[in-house]
Fold this sequence. Notes:
Blueprint: H1 2-21, E1 41-42, E2 47-52, E3 58-64, E4 72-77, E5 83-90, E6 96-97, E7 106-108, E8 116-120, E9 127-134, E10 142-150
Parallel strand pairs: 1-3
Antiparallel strand pairs: 2-10, 3-9, 4-8, 4-10, 5-6, 5-7, 5-9
The protein binds calcium ion (CA) (2 copies).
Amino acid sequence: MKGIKYILAILAIVFLVIGLGGCEYTYPFEEEPNNTPSDATFVRNQIVKEQIHVATDLDYWEINLGTIVRSSEVKLTHLSEDLKIMAFGYDVNDNQITLDGSNNYLNSDNDGTENELILISNDDVVTLFVCVEASDRRGLPGTYWLEHNIY
Length: 151
Ligand SMILES: [Ca+2]
Ligand SMILES: [Ca+2]
């Protein structure tokens, strides 16, 4: 019995050290490296809470919208620093879709910690890629919640 308590105590210390040491990994859903679209973390929740841990960090997310979606939105809330967001989409045949005139992406970069919001009205988008990064304005790391909704 004493031995089990000892082992549990050691395990608790190990988990504590891992948790404190790897700051990025105390956030449960991001899978670094995710700095390119091909390394994007698949979004499994409506809301994920993450962070840009250094100014040069990029966080790519992949959101599967499905084929019956008419429109969708992605937003950044609870910003601790001035961050920005960009989104681009692919159709059912994995072809990239032009979302905004001649641009193949949409972006939102409001001043300060104001929420960022992107609305996607193109119903051909089946897979959405989202990139979160520090704004050019301040270039500083920060935490965020990424939320998506489909209609
Ligand atoms: Ca990150
Ligand atoms: Ca990253």
